[in-house]
């Protein structure tokens, strides 16, 4: 496996760094969500990881360290900040490791606990899966809900009456905002600085999931990501997992079941995320990834 060799940021360390680039939750290089993957990050400082992520400019870059046997540590950086967990960069990491070492299982130590990453071959490609953290679902305060809708430039009439606005956690806390039809989703045009300020105040470090229901087990989503310095995320694994927990909590889907989330078409990078919703615990997010050029 070859990757892009880059000079290490910072003057106190020497050498080059292999940075792999993948598009996750897709089978084509121009789809899905691009992610950087560094498989040997043991010598990097936090500042160097942040500098690499900023230079790449992808929604997230994953940095793997302390790999030993069946375990490893992983950290995730968006262009402007470290995030506790990232679904698409984990899927990209799983595919990268499987391509190098063969499919299997790896216990990842993350900021939100130990999570199992698995990979397998299916129909000529590698599919990676990550079991997400123990979830929770809770309503936002009324004033926060009102501020969120204001930032998203949505009215009450734009919302789906049968599904409430809630915050769901799956490694990151994601507000879930269901809208009544596809036209509302297509027309989403939010206030970037105001939403960034609100999310910082609430400790929401990832995306807002604005979703539209296509069927009992199928949704489409758009995910603003101002905390990371990205206007819109093309595929958000942790938000898809949060949506699965949200639907299970409301009794909107049976458990176990499988959920399909379509995302990214509105930014020209269509993606498909598969979410396995168990009876209890964190949902499993699955998808493929393909190498992309620098």
Defining traits:
294 residues, 2 domains, Diaminopimelate Epimerase, Chain A, domain 1, alpha+beta, 19-stranded mixed beta sheet, globular
Structure notes:
With 294 residues, the chain is α+β, with helices and mostly antiparallel strands. The protein folds into two domains: 128 residues, Roll (Diaminopimelate Epimerase, Chain A, domain 1), CATH 3.10.310; 153 residues, Diaminopimelate Epimerase, Chain A, domain 1 (Roll), CATH 3.10.310. The chain has six helices and 19 strands. It has a 19-stranded mixed β-sheet that branches. β2 and β3 form a beta hairpin. The longest helix has 15 residues. The two termini are 14 Å apart.
- Could you name the CATH class of the largest domain? Alpha Beta
- CATH homology group of the largest domain: Diaminopimelate Epimerase, Chain A, domain 1
What would CATH call the architecture of the largest domain?
Roll
* Fraction of residues in helix: 10-25%
Concise summary:
The protein is 23% helix and 38% strand.
Question: Topology, pairings included?
Answer:
Elements: E1 4-7, E2 16-24, E3 33-38, H1 46-56, E4 60-68, E5 71-77, E6 82-83, H2 87-101, E7 105-110, E8 113-122, E9 125-131, E10 136-138, H3 142-152, E11 166-169, E12 173-178, H4 182-186, H5 192-202, E13 209-215, E14 218-225, E15 230-233, H6 237-250, E16 257-263, E17 271-277, E18 284-287, E19 289-291
Parallel strand pairs: 3-4, 5-7, 12-13, 14-16
Antiparallel strand pairs: 1-2, 2-3, 2-19, 4-5, 5-6, 7-8, 8-9, 9-18, 10-11, 11-12, 13-14, 14-15, 16-17, 17-18
